[in-house]
């Protein structure tokens, strides 16, 4: 072990202000317009962590241009389309206007690319939960920037741990589709930055929902092992991906691992999945860098999820991550119990810190 592991007392955190203002008003949920789950108040996560524990969280400003990495993780025309959608909304005279995807590109006969208005934004979308607003491009760009900057710092400074407090989330964002409240795949952008220096990266996605975007971006590749623990997609979003027989394809065969956790899963069973399935996979692959997209929507109190994890669970998960003993970037994904998300993230962080 390096000296750094013994001396690490703080969590170096990358985030920037604008993510606080990201607040889509409504999502169109199976025939109903409901308040959007990714509410601006989720940003209380930031305030409370930094205010309550100024000695633990060291804030650094994300300053690396993420564009190169965005263009590796995503199709150039997709990045361009999101930028021009937000641009068009800024130019529109309607205040707080949003593009809501309603018509989708589904096959070859239905794929004429032109994204000029609300009517066309579904070309790059896979659900109706994820509207695009005038600030969406900037916010998603800055979210990815936090992830890339954190990875850059981890590598350049030869560090063991960093936290990218990203918002909007990233793990549902595919190469050229947004959805599930995600636009740019923050973990993939960070992985692409890592791959400039290392040959093997592992992504361990602990959000309640399957990270279909990350899976699809790396499905044919063996330089990024993607592991997901999540709720059964037979019943839970994103519904059409995340099954255990999805193991990768071509060169990527065997480098995608989906682990479905049962409803109401508690600490003990969750840790058993980590020990019995995740640890051996990580040991065998032996990545040089680990990325952990962490969603705390696995908590018992989460309004979207139906797992039963508690503060103690997150503490134990943090300890598990520490025991993997690889340079690790933790990236914020979901978690919708606004009152408690900071508590859960903090429990994970202290679990990591205390087990040195
Ligand atoms: C994003 B992330 C609830 C329907 C489901 C989509 C869930 C997106 C989760 N209104 N909405 O993985 O936390
Ligand atoms: Zn989630």
How would you describe this protein?
With 356 residues, this protein is of the alpha/beta class. It has helices at 3-7, 44-52, 67-73, 76-91, 136-156, 186-194, 212-217, 267-285, 311-324, 341-354, and strands at residues 11-14, 26-29, 32-35, 57-60, 98-99, 132-133, 161-164, 201-205, 224-231, 256-261, 289-294, 328-332. The strands form 3 sheets. The protein has an 8-stranded parallel sheet, sandwiched between helices. Strands 2-3 form a two-stranded antiparallel sheet. Helix 9 links the parallel strand 11 and strand 12. Helix 2 (44-52) crosses helix 10, helix 5 (136-156) runs parallel beside helix 6 and helix 9 (311-324) packs parallel to helix 10 (341-354). The longest helix is centred in the middle third of the chain and has 21 residues, at 136-156. {5-[(3-aminopropyl)amino]pentyl}boronic acid is lined by residues 27, 29, 37, 129, 169, 172, 180-181, 207, 209, 237, 295, 297, 304, 333-334.
How do you describe this structure in short?
The chain is an alpha/beta fold.
């Amino acid at each position: 072990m390096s000296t750094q592991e013994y001396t690490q007392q703080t969590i170096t955190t990358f985030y920037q202000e604008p993510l606080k203002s990201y607040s889509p008003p409504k999502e169109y949920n199976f025939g109903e317009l409901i308040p959007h789950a990714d509410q601006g108040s989720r940003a209380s996560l930031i305030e409370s962590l930094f205010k309550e524990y100024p000695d633990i969280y060291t804030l650094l400003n994300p300053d690396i241009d993420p564009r190169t990495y965005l263009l590796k993780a995503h199709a150039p025309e997709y990045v361009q389309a999101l930028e021009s959608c937000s641009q068009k909304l800024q130019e529109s005279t309607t205040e707080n206007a949003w593009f809501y995807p309603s018509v989708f590109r589904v096959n070859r006969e239905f794929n004429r690319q032109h994204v000029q208005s609300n009517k066309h934004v579904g070309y790059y979308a896979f659900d109706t939960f994820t509207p695009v607003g005038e600030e969406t491009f900037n916010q998603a760009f800055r979210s990815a920037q936090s992830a890339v900057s954190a990875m850059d710092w981890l590598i350049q400074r030869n560090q063991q741990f960093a936290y990218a407090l990203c918002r909007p989330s990233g793990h549902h964002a595919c190469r050229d589709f947004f959805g599930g409240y995600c636009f740019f795949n923050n973990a993939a952008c960070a992985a692409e930055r890592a791959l400039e220096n290392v040959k093997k990266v592992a992504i361990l996605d602990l959000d309640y929902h399957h990270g279909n975007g990350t899976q699809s971006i790396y499905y044919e590749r063996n330089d990024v092992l993607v592991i997901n623990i999540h709720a059964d997609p037979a019943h839970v979003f994103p519904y059409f991906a995340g099954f255990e027989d999805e193991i990768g394809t071509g060169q990527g065969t065997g480098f995608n691992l989906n682990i479905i956790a049962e409803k109401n899963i508690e600490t003990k069973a969750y840790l058993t999945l980590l020990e019995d399935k995740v640890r051996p996979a990580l040991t065998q692959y032996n990545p040089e860098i680990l990325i952990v997209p962490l969603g705390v929507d696995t908590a018992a109190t989460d309004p979207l999820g139906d797992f039963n994890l508690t503060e103690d669970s997150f503490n134990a998960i943090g300890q598990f991550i520490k025991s993997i003993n690889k340079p690790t970037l933790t990236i914020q994904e979901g978690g919708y119990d606004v009152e408690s998300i900071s508590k859960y993230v903090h429990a994970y962080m202290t679990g990591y810190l205390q087990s040195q």
